Amino acid sequence: MGAARLFLSLAILLPFAASAAENLPTTMDPPPQRSQAEAGDKAPETSPPADEAAEDLPAAMTPPQPRPQKQAAGEAPGTTPLPSEEASCRQRLRALGVAFEEAPPIAEPQGCMAPHPVTVSRLSATVALQPPAVLTCAMAEASARFVRDHAAPLAERTFASKLATLEQASAFVCRPRHGTQKLSEHAFANALDWSALVLADGTRIEVRAHDEKKEPRESALLAGIRKAACGPFSTVLGPGSDADHADHFHFDLATRRNPFCQ
Questions:
Q1: Where are the domains of the chain?
Q2: 118 by DSSP, 3-state: which?
Q3: Considering Cα of 257, then 119, then 239, then 217, what sign does the dihedral take?
Q4: Cα-based distances in Å from 69 to 89, 185, 259
């Protein structure tokens, strides 16, 4: 009796079980993923692509510029190095208190030349040169030494006032000597013409013939300067030498066996 009931129950349930099996999906779909917002998780950081990272790298460093070569004392920027004697001469000018600037090299078709001239505006810390003169360094040095050692002390001793300004009438001029075809020492920036001396108290002594009785101090000062110049300069001319030098002293450093002084 019990076996009969069991058999009857299985007969009833088997059709329902087969139908349920037919309705099951063949494969299971994966569960839907939650969004980042729903999950509350922070998005993982990712590295930039290699090409983007390369753009952020610094460019190749520019090599440092070469240091400019050190120029000799007295040498104008951008010029070729001065000969050693010219450089040494400029150091001596500074030691004497001479105020100067480098001047452009002189090379004229007529033959006038001065490879390394200077423009001088003061012969010492206390004596101005007006107007400024273009001279060789050697002539500038000789003039500065002569003023320091002779002209300035003579002026102060004679007039009891210091020499303040030396007025010049000619320095570099590309021209021949008067009445000849030979170039003057002025054509080589190797000469300086003095026209007047101005003292600190304003006294102005012109270079010309002065009456010894009426102008004894002027006459004595100019005579003293003229005498002292023969030796420091190789050529000394002035009032009384000729008509061309009636109103100035001419001093130069021409190459001579013996000084020429008139």
A1: 86-261
A2: strand
A3: negative
A4: 21, 35, 43
